[in-house]
Every structure is written in structure tokens, then in C-alpha cells.
């Protein structure tokens, strides 16, 4: 029993160190800087621990906690994206007086929650992880507590999320009632198509998960929360919880619900199509960049879900590749927002970008690369993400899904082009301050470089993701 | 493994654009020299490629293969007698575009050159690729620089035109992407040399063929999806129009030859009447529309649609004359339309008007310009002794073997072509002087004369001596037709 604890080392390290820096924060005044740097360090060390630990599958605590290649991949992805999101937003946090020492600590706690989510092999552990993550996110959404819109978005997120958690919990209890177990493997062996109650349970669980990844029709909170929360939080929201949510969706399909795949698939196909269409249509009329990114993220989740909807391993792989590239693109897009500063204010309207290509050519070209990549135009990374998804979808001969997906790609290209038009074709209005925000610049540079050079070795991610399902 | 000459050809312009991007050059002189130098180097390299290509073999040559996506999609390049000509055309037109922007582009010259060079990379890539996915990649990637060229350096309605161009083309080609992936799942490969050997099931051919058509028809452009072209041409800067007319439109014709016919022979046979009708409508209808234009660029744009009608007609006659004529027509249209757009660009730079009514009587004040303009106008209407004649003549010869009706109607289009081109010449070059400013215009300067005279030379040279081109593609076309016949018989 004790020897097995080394499987938990990343989680143990993360939680212990989080609580120790919490202590530092409590007793040390003006400790934001130290805590911020320490938490970056903690994230890096955790990455190192996970990478150095073996990928072989092991289950501990009555098989409720799994460590395997799948969970390790997602943990590293979560940590890496958090690291970039956190560091690129540091200037923003300080300048907007959000520099409370709790900020990075809560982020670390939400990461811990996600760790348990992606590692869970049991409904109870899964729910606990999910709630730890959600509670941290409620606080983060309203962290700018004197700001009306930030608190509003926090409350909104809390109310809706609590509702979805309730549904999810209800689903879990139904599932327990019908299968007599909370363990994923046991549930999988108990479930079959005749088990109508389990289908109900599945629907409730799906609602909860769809809410977390903000898929239509459970997306309503997304635009408001994205717009209301401070940009640094929005970028975290847009990236990290999505990764964990998608991991869970795949996991549920792969293990507990693998026997009722058909029922589950139908719903996901619907959600995927609805998300793609809504993401494309609703984003066209947005004027606020963060709101636009909210709708764009809904659309992108739709594409990732199209991969999940195939119900095949190749589809799951493509969804994982998709979400990984999505993370890279969104980190770049949000980091660009940290450079749009004028008179001490960060601008977030699309019209403020007007003509920045003349005064800020490098920023403009970064926007260009990221936006074309989000639109899925080759030869940028975003194209390959979509390509893999559609390869997987067409392998299952789901032509309708593929054609709708590609048509919405064209529709969504329209609004990305509109931003590019504002940046490149319109006349310059605002000259932004030359900010020395090195970390954001590094994030943008890293993101653009990956997106441009992705076509040289497009199968790097594939090979990595491929190995997750072999074991 | 030999020296990867095709990759070098593709990535040379990209590298030099990177070089320009990183250089700090305030006055843009160096950027122009670097890009000119690199594009001429690319041109020479492509000439070397043409020279060392074995004309007597229909096989793909200079093949480069590299595993790319999970070993199942390869980065495969190669050229044969057909594609080499398009590559040379691309590398030949690009330096001319770069020279033209000395006069016509005043703002953000450096970015413009970067866009042109990146576009060149993608265009060469399209003609070199032997893998469907790579082809799609380059085919679509070309949209980004072209979108920016139209949108940033274009005329007053540039935003509308750029959007229309981008979205039309993207919409057309996503269906091709679906088709490509379906082909992958059907045959297990996207390597076209492999697909040529595997017969795609008959039930799938028609639908796949239509998916490819949706992309090529927009790009070509064929009636009724041609409406983006006049807008894009009118608003694009001169160099943009030149590339658009000379090379981007040829991608679709090339696509038909490289993909549609060899991969889907049965469907190609089946849909021939459709293509004939669309081509005839394009020839007659757009010629009539061209007659009524007030805008010179728009007129030439519509004439391009009509000329592309001959190309599609010729390709789908599936006779040796028809296909050779189409290829010849594409090359010659590449030279002639490029020259005509440059001619419009020359007077536009001076008078800032594209309206026919603002000109007239140019011959008295710009004699050299008028001479060149008339040469190109006559070439465009297919006067014997220019390259335009041979292409149309061969296409019509091919068409007469298959369908008298189509050939008759297409021949009627030649008359209409003469009508709008001659009327344009009459109103712009001859006639009374409507605009007092014309008296103050200067004749073509040195760089303009270099561009136009080079093009004029080749237009006339290939009008009299088609052999170098014919020799190059003849064997490849023969094998294309042979394979097509075999596929039909064995069906």
C-alpha cells in the first residue's frame, strides 16, 4: 500500500507545496511576487516529476485512481498551458491590481482538482476533483471583486455551474443505483443497452460535462463570463478547464460507457453540430474580442467533440490533438490582448485593433498567424487539427458531420477575416503603448512559431497521442 | 538521393521572404533587389529543371519523397511534362510582378514583396505536389497572401472583393478536402501515383468528381461561380491581378488534368456534357458581358473567364488536340492576360483611372505603349502568329471531333472575343482624346518596357514556334489520354 504512494507523487507534491506557499502568503506582506514565482516553479517541478515518472498503467486506492499515459499527457498539457497563461498575464494582473497572493494559489488548487479529474477511475473521486476545480474557478471569475462585471460573471458562473454539478451528481447516483458500483471498470462491465436507467444517468453526466467544456446547448455562461472576468482569468478559463473537460468526456466514453456507445454518440453528434454552428454564427456579430473568442471556443469545442463523436480510438486521438493545438492558439490569442494597452487601460474591442499593422507590424503579424490558424487555413497548425478530426470522422463514414463541420469552417473564417480586415485594411486609430511585457511576447512568439512550423513535422503530436491508447 | 531540386525551388522564395522580413531596410531598395534576385534565381533554377527534364517519358521525374504524417501521407514532389510548364510560368511571372511594383506599389513595399514571394512558394508547391494532401495544403495556403494583397494594396472596394475571393474559394475547396479524405479511406493512400493504379469504385467516382469540381470550378472560374473574379481583379493591385490571372486561375485547369481525369475517368466521361455546357455559357455569356464593361480591368477579367471556358472545353474533349490546346491556351493566357493587366496598370499609375471613358487617343502621345497594347490585344483575340491563336485553334480542333454544336458555339465566341478586344483598343488607343490630361502623360519607362517587351517577345515567339512547349508536354498528354481510354474500356 505504502509503496504505491509514489504513483501519487505529483499530486502530493502539488498539494503540499500549494499549502506551504499559502502559509508564506498569509505571513508575509506584499508577497504576490514571491508566491507568483514560486507557483511557476511548482508547476515546472510538477511537470518534471510527471515526465520522469513511468507511463505504465497503475491503479491504486481500490482502483479509484489511475496513473497512465493518458492522464499523464493531460496533466502535462494542463500544467504547461497554465504556466504560459499565468506568466503571460503577470503584467496584466499587477497593473489591474489583481495581485493578491491568493490568485496563483487558487490556480494551483484548480489544477489539483483537474489532476484528480483526469486520473479518476471512480465516480466519487471524479466528482471531488470536478468540484475542487469548479470552486476554484468560481473564485477566480469574481476575483476582481470591486468590479461589477467581474462579480456578476462570478455569480453567473457559480449559479449555472452549481446547477450542472447537481445534474451531474444526480447522474452519478443514478448510475450507482443501476450498476451497484462507482468504479468505472465495474460500471462498464455492468452496463448494457437494455439498461434504460443507465442511459438517463449518462445524459445527466453528459450535461454536466458539456457545461464544463461549454458546448451548445450548455454554453450560455461562456460569453458573459469571458467578457466579465478579467482577461487573465478569461484566458485561463478558455484553455485549461476545457482540456480537463474534454479528457473526462473521452474517458467516460472510453471506459464506463463503452457498452452504450451508440446512445452516447448520437447525443455528442448533436452537441458537436450545434456547437459548430452556433460558434460560427454568433461570433459574426461580436464587437468585443473576448466575447468573440468565447464563441470561437464554443465552435472549436464542437470540432473536438466531432472527433469524440466517432466513438473510435482514432477519433479520440484526433480530439486530443485538436484540443492541444487549440490550447496553443488560444494562449497566443490571449497573450496578444496583453499588449493592447493604451493610457493604462487594456483595450478589448475589435475596433481598437483598427490599423495596428502600421504601427505594430509584429503584433499584427502574430494576430494574422493566430487568426488564420484558428480559421483552419493551411499550412498553419489549426488546419492540421481540423484535418485529423475530419480524417477520423470520415473513417466512420459520418459524412453529414464532416460536411457540416467544414461548412461552418467557412462561416467561421468570415469573422476571423473580419478581424484581420480591421487589423490590416483599416486605417490606424490608436497607437498602443510600447509595453515591455516580455512574458506575453514570449508566449506569442512560441505560439506563432509552433503554428507556422507545425507543417514540417505534423505527426509529432499524433505519435505522442497515439501512444496514449496503446497501453 | 539526388539534390532535392524541387524542394529548393519551392522554398527558395520563402527563404528570401524571411530574409526580407528580418532585414531592416527603410527605403525598400534592398528588399526589391533581394526579391528580384531570388525570384530570378528561382526562374533560372526552373529553367534548368525544364532543360534537364526528359521529354520522352511520361513518368514523374525529380521525385522527392519524405514521410510526413504518420508515414501514411508522404511529402511527395515530382514534375512531368505538364507541370513543368506551369512551374516555369510561375517563376517567370513573379519577377515581372516584382518589377511592376516598383512603379505601382507606394506603401508597405516590403510587406508586398514578402506576400508575393510567399505566394510564389505556394504556387510552385501546387504544381509540384504528387500527394493530394500536399496539393490541398498549397492550394489553400495561397489564399492568405492573395487575400492580403487584394485587401491591403487594393482599390476602394477592396474589402468586399478580398472577402468574396477568400470565402468563395474556401467554400469550394472544403468539399475537395472531404473528397480527399474519402479517397484516402477508399484507397489507403493519398499519393496520386498510387491512386492512378488503383481504380476508385464506380459508385464513388461521380460524387468525388463533383467535389473536386466544386473547388476547381470556383478557382477556374467557371460560370456561374465566376463572379468573384471581376471584383478581385478590379480591386487588386496590378501585380495581384497579374498573378491572379496568370497563375492562380491555371491551378484549376492543372487540377483537372492532374486529378479529375486520371483519378475519375468514368465520371469525367459522364460529366462531359455538363462541362461542355458550362464552358459554352462561359465563352458566349461572359464575352457578351465583357462587351458592355466600362472598366478596363473588368473587361479583361471577363475575357479571362471566357478564355478559361476554352480551357475547360479543350480538357474535356479528351482528345490530344483538345488537351494540348488547353495547356497551350493556359500558358499563353498566362502571358497575355498578365501583359494586359500590366498595360492597364501602366496607365492607371499615371492617370489613376481604369475607366475606358477617361482614355482615348493614347496613340498620339504614348506610341510605344500603344504598340505594345495592340500586340497584346490582338494576341488576346487569337490572331494567328500569336500564342493565343494556337491554343484556341487546337481546342476547337479537338472540340470538332467530339461535338459539332459545342465547337460551333465556341467558334462564335472567338468572334465575340475579337469584338470586345478591338472595341477596347479602339476606345482606349485610338479615337478622340476625351481627357486633357492625356497630353501630359509620359510614355512607358524603362522598367515597364522591360516587362512588356519580354512578354510581347514570348507571345509572338510561341505564336510562331510552339515546338518547345509542345515537345515538353506531348508525351505526358499522350499517356494521360491512353490511360483514360484504357480505364474506360476496362470498365
Keywords:
heterodimer; A: 471 residues; mainly alpha; two-stranded antiparallel sheet; two-stranded antiparallel ribbon; 20 helices; 74% helix; B: 491 residues; 21 helices
How would you sum up this structure in a few lines?
The complex is a heterodimer of chains A (471) and B (491). Chain A has helices at 9-27, 32-52, 69-88, 90-95, 102-119, 123-141, 148-179, 184-190, 196-212, 221-228, 231-254, 261-283, 289-309, 313-337, 356-359, 361-375, 381-395, 399-424, 438-453, 460-470; strands spanning 58-60, 65-67, 341-342, 345-346.
Discrete helix count of chain B? 21
Stretches of chain A where pLDDT is under 50 for at least 5 consecutive residues are none
| Largest sheet, strands/sense/barrel of chain A | 2 strands, antiparallel
- What's the mean pLDDT score of chain B? 88
Strand order of the main beta sheet of chain B, please?
1-2
Structural features, described:
The complex is a heterodimer of chains A (471) and B (491). Chain A has 471 residues and is mainly alpha-helical. Chain A has helices at residues 9-27, 32-52, 69-88, 90-95, 102-119, 123-141, 148-179, 184-190, 196-212, 221-228, 231-254, 261-283, 289-309, 313-337, 356-359, 361-375, 381-395, 399-424, 438-453, 460-470, and strands spanning 58-60, 65-67, 341-342, 345-346. Helices cover 74% and strands 2% of the residues of chain A. In chain A, a hairpin with a 4-residue loop joins β1 and β2 (65-67). The longest helix of chain A has 32 residues, at 148-179. The mean pLDDT of chain A is 88. The two termini of chain B are 39 Å apart. Chain B is mostly helical and 491 residues long. Chain B has 21 helices and 2 strands. Chain B has helices spanning 5-22, 29-52, 81-104, 109-128, 132-141, 143-153, 158-187, 192-197, 202-219, 228-235, 238-263, 265-270, 272-291, 296-317, 320-351, 362-365, 367-380, 387-402, 404-428, 446-464, 467-490; strands at 61-69, 73-79. Chain A binds chain B through residues 357, 361, 368, 372, 377-379, 383, 387, 390-391, 394-395, 399, 402-403, 406-407, 409-410, 413-414, 417, 420-421, 424-425, 455, 458-459, 462-463, 466, and chain B through 68-71, 111, 133, 136-138, 140-141, 143-144, 147-148, 151-152, 158-159, 162-163, 166-167, 170-171, 174-175, 177-178, 181-182, 184-185.
Amino acid at each position: 500500500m505504502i509503496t504505491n504512494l509514489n504513483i501519487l507523487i505529483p499530486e502530493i507534491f502539488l498539494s503540499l507545496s500549494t499549502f506551504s506557499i499559502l502559509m508564506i502568503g498569509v505571513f508575509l506582506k506584499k508577497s504576490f511576487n514571491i508566491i507568483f514565482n514560486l507557483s511557476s516553479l511548482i508547476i515546472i517541478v510538477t511537470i518534471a516529476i510527471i515526465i520522469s515518472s513511468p507511463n505504465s498503467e497503475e491503479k491504486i486506492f481500490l482502483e479509484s485512481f489511475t496513473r497512465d499515459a493518458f492522464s499523464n499527457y493531460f496533466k502535462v498539457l494542463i500544467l504547461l498551458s497554465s504556466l504560459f497563461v499565468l506568466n503571460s498575464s503577470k503584467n496584466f494582473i499587477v497593473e489591474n491590481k489583481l495581485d493578491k497572493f491568493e490568485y496563483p494559489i487558487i490556480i494551483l488548487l484548480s489544477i489539483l482538482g483537474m489532476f484528480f479529474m483526469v486520473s479518476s477511475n471512480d465516480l466519487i473521486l471524479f466528482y471531488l476533483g470536478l468540484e475542487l476545480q469548479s470552486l476554484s474557478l468560481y473564485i477566480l471569475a469574481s476575483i476582481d471583486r470591486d468590479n461589477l462585471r467581474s462579480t456578476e460573471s462570478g455569480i453567473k458562473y457559480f449559479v449555472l455551474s452549481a446547477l450542472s454539478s447537481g445534474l451531474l451528481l444526480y447522474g452519478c447516483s443514478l448510475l450507482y443505483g443501476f450498476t451497484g458500483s462507482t468504479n468505472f471498470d465495474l460500471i462498464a462491465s455492468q452496463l448494457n443497452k437494455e439498461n434504460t436507467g443507465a442511459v438517463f444517468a449518462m445524459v445527466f453526466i453528459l450535461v454536466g460535462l458539456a457545461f464544463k467544456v461549454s458546448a451548445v446547448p450548455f454554453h450560455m455562461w461562456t460569453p458573459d463570463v469571458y467578457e466579465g472576468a478579467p482577461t487573465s482569468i478569461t484566458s485561463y478559463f478558455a484553455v485549461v478547464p476545457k482540456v480537463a473537460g474534454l479528457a473526462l468526456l473521452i474517458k467516460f466514453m472510453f471506459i464506463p460507457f463503452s457498452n452504450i456507445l451508440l446512445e452516447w454518440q448520437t447525443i455528442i453528434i448533436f452537441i458537436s453540430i450545434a456547437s459548430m454552428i452556433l460558434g460560427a454564427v454568433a461570433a459574426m456579430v461580436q464587437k468585443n474580442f473576448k466575447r468573440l473568442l468565447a464563441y470561437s471556443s464554443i465552435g472549436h469545442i464542437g470540432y473536438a467533440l466531432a472527433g469524440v463523436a466517432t466513438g473510435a480510438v482514432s477519433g479520440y486521438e484526433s480530439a486530443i490533438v485538436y484540443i492541444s493545438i487549440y490550447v496553443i492558439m488560444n494562449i497566443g490569442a490571449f497573450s496578444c490582448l496583453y499588449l493592447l494597452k493604451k493610457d493604462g487601460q487594456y483595450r478589448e474591442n475589435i475596433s481598437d485593433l483598427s490599423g495596428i499593422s502600421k504601427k505594430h507590424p509584429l503584433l499584427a503579424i502574430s494576430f494574422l498567424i493566430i487568426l488564420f490558424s484558428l480559421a483552419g487555413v493551411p499550412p498553419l497548425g489549426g488546419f492540421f487539427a481540423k484535418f485529423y478530426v475530419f480524417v477520423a470522422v470520415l473513417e466512420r463514414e459520418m459524412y453529414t458531420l464532416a460536411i457540416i463541420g467544414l461548412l461552418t469552417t467557412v462561416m467561421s473564417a468570415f469573422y476571423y477575416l473580419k478581424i484581420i480586415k480591421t487589423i490590416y485594411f483599416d486605417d490606424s486609430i490608436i497607437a498602443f503603448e510600447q509595453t515591455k511585457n516580455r512574458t506575453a511576447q514570449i508566449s506569442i512568439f512560441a505560439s506563432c512559431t509552433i503554428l507556422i512550423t507545425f507543417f514540417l513535422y505534423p505527426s509529432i503530436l499524433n505519435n505522442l497521442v497515439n501512444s496514449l491508447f496503446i497501453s | 538521393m539526388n539534390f532535392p531540386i524541387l524542394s529548393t525551388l519551392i522554398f527558395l522564395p520563402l527563404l528570401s521572404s524571411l530574409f526580407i522580413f528580418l532585414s531592416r531596410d527603410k527605403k525598400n531598395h534592398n528588399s526589391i533587389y533581394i526579391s528580384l534576385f531570388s525570384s530570378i534565381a528561382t526562374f533560372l533554377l526552373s529553367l534548368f529543371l525544364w532543360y534537364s527534364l526528359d521529354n520522352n517519358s511520361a513518368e514523374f521525374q525529380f521525385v522527392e519523397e519524405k514521410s510526413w504524417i504518420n508515414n501514411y501521407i508522404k511529402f511527395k514532389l515530382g514534375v512531368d511534362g505538364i507541370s513543368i510548364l506551369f512551374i516555369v510560368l510561375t517563376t517567370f511571372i513573379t519577377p515581372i510582378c516584382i518589377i511592376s511594383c516598383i512603379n505601382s506599389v507606394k506603401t508597405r513595399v516590403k510587406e508586398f514583396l514578402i506576400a508575393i514571394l510567399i505566394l510564389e512558394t505556394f504556387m510552385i508547391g501546387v504544381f509540384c505536389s504528387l500527394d493530394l494532401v500536399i496539393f490541398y495544403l498549397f492550394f489553400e495556403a495561397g489564399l492568405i497572401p492573395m487575400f492580403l494583397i487584394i485587401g491591403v494594396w487594393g482599390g476602394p472596394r477592396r474589402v468586399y472583393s478580398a472577402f468574396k475571393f477568400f470565402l468563395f474559394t474556401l467554400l469550394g475547396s472544403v468539399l475537395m478536402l472531404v473528397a480527399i479524405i474519402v479517397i484516402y479511406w477508399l484507397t489507403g493512400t493519398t499519393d496520386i501515383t498510387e491512386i492512378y493504379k488503383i481504380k476508385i469504385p464506380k459508385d464513388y467516382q461521380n460524387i468525388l468528381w463533383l467535389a473536386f469540381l466544386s473547388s476547381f470550378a470556383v478557382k477556374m472560374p467557371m460560370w456561374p461561380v465566376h463572379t468573384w473574379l471581376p471584383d478581385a481583379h478590379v480591386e487588386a493591385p496590378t501585380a495581384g491581378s497579374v498573378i491572379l490571372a496568370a497563375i492562380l486561375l491555371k491551378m484549376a485547369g492543372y487540377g483537372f488534368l492532374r486529378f479529375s481525369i486520371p483519378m475519375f475517368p468514368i465520371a469525367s466521361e459522364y460529366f462531359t456534357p455538363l462541362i461542355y455546357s458550362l464552358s459554352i455559357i462561359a465563352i458566349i455569356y461572359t464575352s457578351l458581358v465583357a462587351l458592355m464593361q466600362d472598366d478596363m480591368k473588368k473587361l479583361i477579367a471577363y475575357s479571362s473567364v471566357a478564355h478559361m471556358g476554352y480551357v475547360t472545353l479543350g480538357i474535356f474533349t479528351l482528345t490530344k488536340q483538345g488537351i494540348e490546346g488547353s495547356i497551350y491556351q493556359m500558358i499563353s493566357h498566362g502571358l497575355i492576360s498578365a501583359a494586359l493587366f500590366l498595360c492597364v496598370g501602366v496607365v492607371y499609375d499615371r492617370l489613376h483611372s481604369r475607366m475606358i471613358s477617361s482614355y482615348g487617343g493614347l496613340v498620339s502621345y504614348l506610341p510605344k505603349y500603344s504598340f505594345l497594347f495592340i500586340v497584346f490585344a490582338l494576341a488576346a483575340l487569337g490572331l494567328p502568329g500569336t500564342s493565343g491563336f494556337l491554343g484556341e485553334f487546337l481546342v476547337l480542333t479537338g472540340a470538332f471531333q467530339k461535338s459539332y454544336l459545342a465547337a460551333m458555339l465556341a467558334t462564335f465566341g472567338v468572334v465575340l472575343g475579337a469584338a470586345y478586344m478591338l472595341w477596347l483598343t479602339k476606345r482606349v488607343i485610338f479615337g478622340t482624346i476625351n481627357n486633357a490630361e492625356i497630353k501630359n502623360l509620359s510614355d512607358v519607362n524603362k522598367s515597364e518596357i522591360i516587362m512588356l517587351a519580354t512578354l510581347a517577345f514570348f507571345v509572338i515567339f510561341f505564336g510562331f514556334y510552339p515546338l518547345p512547349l509542345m515537345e515538353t508536354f506531348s508525351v505526358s498528354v499522350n499517356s494521360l489520354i491512353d490511360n483514360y481510354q484504357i480505364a474506360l474500356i476496362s470498365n
